[in-house]
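Students often ask why we bother encoding 3D structure as a string. The short answer is that it lets us treat folding as translation between two languages. Here is a chain of 343 residues written in the first language.
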Amino acid sequence: MKKGCPYGTQRVISPKGALPQPADVIDNTMEIYDNEVLIDVMTLNIDSASFTEIEKRAGEDIEEIKKTILQIVEKAGKMKNPWTGSGGMLIGVVKEIGPNFEGDLKVGDKIATLVSLSLTPLKIDEIIEIRPDIDQVDIKGQAILFQSGLYAKLPDDIPESLALSALDVAGAPAQTAKFAKVGDTVVVVGGGGKAGMLVTYEAKKRVGVTGKVIVIDGLDRAIDRAKKLGYADEYVLADATDSLEIYKIVSELTDGKLADLVINCVNIENTEMSCILACRSHGIVYFFSMATSFTKAALGAEGVGKDIEMIVGNGYCEGHAEITLQVLRESEPIRKMFQELYA
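And here it is in the second language, the structure alphabet:
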């Protein structure tokens, strides 16, 4: 059996010297190296920005969406959206484990991978069903997990599709738990979406009664969801691409102090400046959204003279799977909402 690099560089076809995520093409041959894990895949959870873009380009036609996904995987050897650069995650069953793989997995374990599909070698034999409302794709196929790849064994007390939906955005509530402090004002842009609902709960939990959580969303149904959960202090229906309007709203709701922490959970472009303007000097903006242009964010903040800390939406945060699944256990309203929407 061939020896593999922990980071999966043995799979990179082009460009030479790249790691699997930024690579254009990787080897998706399902013969494992000595430190890899072979997974029989059940479901792909395409990340929201990626699925939205694919759906738009396919004219919302299911057969065209299938065709696009198959073409992407066939060309790249992985599910890396060529327009957004993002992927998603998967659930499946461990079929084979390389003799030098270090971990607690055994054949037959049902797991969710916690690394992006944009770096995961994937082969799709058949697309069984596409559920566009929740960005999930049931397939027959296989995938490879590298030694460095994170994973979570699926819990017995939470349905698989529910766990998959939550774990897909696990980095967001976990990073919120790290950044939000008692007494802070937190603005959650896209607070009525999947990540946004988890973030709102975690933010309110961390800021306490002396803090304030403001949810902003551009969709009536999303704001209604957030209000039904009831974890924020203010709910605002507004277009996050209208930077000055968002600034005005947040300024009014905070008596001009603005937010200590702004978390961007949207799946559309051109919301960077809304978040930047809503944040106080020396505050934090966490761009969880994969629709974010970090060039726009960096140059935009410079252009308006904002000295703030801007954090890339790293999908990994230590303990993120445990924190996210715990939200589903702690909050019956969120669990029920997620069950209705995603399970």
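Translate back mentally: DSSP finds eleven helices and 14 strands in the chain. Keep this in mind for the problem set.
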